[in-house]
Design brief:
Helices cover about 15% and strands about 20% of the residues. The N terminus and C terminus are likely disordered. The chain is globular, with a radius of gyration of 19 Å. Strands 1, 2, 3, 10, 11, 12 and 13 form a 7-stranded mixed β-sheet that branches. A 6-stranded mixed β-sheet has the order 4-5-6-7-9-8, with helices on one face. The chain has about 350 residues and is an alpha/beta fold. It starts with about 60 loop residues before the first strand and ends in an 11-residue tail after the last strand. It is built from 6 helices and 13 strands. The protein has one domain: 4-Layer Sandwich (Purple Acid Phosphatase, chain A, domain 2), CATH 3.60.21.
Length: about 350
């Protein structure tokens, strides 16, 4: 059995045209959710202050990544053809593939391109409610080392992916503490942050780190339209993960470069039709992107398009981050920069 692998007790069966919209957002100041984390408060800079090229390092090739936000069953043969024929180094899924459906996970696990997945709360929909965990166990077996939870994946070119805590519902671990303790040996927020740092310890010291999570970190805003703000019921508050915040702060203190963190979970359209979510935020030298455009398929005249987030890291710096909409033939029909000052607002 792999070290750090989850252990479930036996239970019963059971991408051309370019469309540019010139809008630049700045990120509002925020207050930390909890007083005990006040020393971890990030510095949210204005868009004008964010220059991803400043830290570019010579000698590294560019690395292209393709992120897939919350899937929720929206994956078809056209998606498979697009990613398998793509120029990306790796495809990164940020979770919520389906509702603990191993047969659907198999479709992702058997992709012939390089990929990693960090599973979301829907991927343990029954297990986290005290169910048998049969579907989850099968999903984890299918993914194997491609499940990035608390792991590192070196991509070459001076880039390493770092996975955070899987299955996050947002906010406190709360009632799910037993799940992480029993099945992963992780004790609360501090224990999970320690596991993230342990994964970082296995990454080359000169690599830049790209954070991958199902839900993003706390400290990026408290309103319902904040990048990881709770919109589904009052109180409308910061619903980010404190363990990821702790780990990112520790990495900053240690001098590690984290130019990008990508997550999902909190959908772009707010509950009750009350607006749309701010899908980017700046935290020091880190750009946070919420990839959860849901549904990720949208209807067009005579067809449908799929959403992706494309990222390019070059010379150790974030060079490009953009939304893509791709039609069923694999043509990119819409693209829009996600980097503040890039001249565009995220496509909805």
């Amino acid at each position: 059995m792999q070290s750090g692998a989850p252990v479930f007790p036996p239970r019963g069966p059971t991408e051309g045209r370019t469309h540019v919209v010139r809008v630049v957002r700045t990120v509002a100041a925020f207050a930390p959710r909890f007083k005990r984390f006040s020393h971890l408060r990030p510095n949210l800079n204005s868009a004008a202050a964010f220059d991803p090229s400043r830290s570019r390092t010579r000698g590294y090739a560019s690395v292209e990544l393709l992120f897939v936000g919350d899937v929720h069953g929206r994956w078809d043969e056209a998606d498979t053809a697009f990613v398998e024929a793509g120029s990306q180094r790796i495809v990164v899924f940020v979770g919520d593939l389906a509702d603990e459906d191993a047969s659907f996970v198999r479709r992702i696990a058997t992709l012939t391109c390089e990929k990693v997945v960090i599973l979301g709360n829907h991927d343990a929909w029954r297990a986290m409610r005290g169910g048998s965990g049969r579907g989850l166990r099968a999903s984890l077996d299918l993914l194997g080392d491609d499940h990035l939870a608390w792991r590192a994946r070196s991509l070459g070119g001076g880039v390493t992916l770092i996975g955070a805590r899987p299955f996050s519902w947002g906010g406190e671990i709360g009632n799910h503490a037993w799940f992480y303790r029993e099945h992963f040996g992780v004790n609360g927020i501090a224990g999970s942050a320690d596991r993230i740092m342990k994964a970082v310890a296995g990454a080359p010291a000169t690599d830049v780190l790209i954070g991958v999570a199902h839900n993003g970190p706390s400290g990026l805003g408290e309103g319902p339209d904040a990048i990881y703000g709770r919109d589904f019921r009052p109180p409308y508050e910061d619903f980010g993960d404190d363990d990821l915040r702790l780990a990112l702060d520790r990495l900053r203190t240690a001098g590690r470069s984290v130019p990008l963190v990508v997550a999902g979970h909190m959908h772009d359209r707010l509950k009750g039709g009350s607006g749309v979510r701010r899908r980017t935020a700046i935290d020091g030298k880190t750009l946070h992107v919420n990839a959860a455009v849901v549904p990720r398929h949208r209807a067009t005249n005579g067809g449908r398009e799929s959403h992706y987030v494309r990222v390019v890291i070059e010379g150790g710096a974030l060079l490009e981050a953009e939304d893509l909409w791709v039609d069923a033939s694999g043509e990119v029909t819409d693209r829009c920069s996600l980097i503040p000052g890039g001249g565009a607002d995220p496509l909805r």
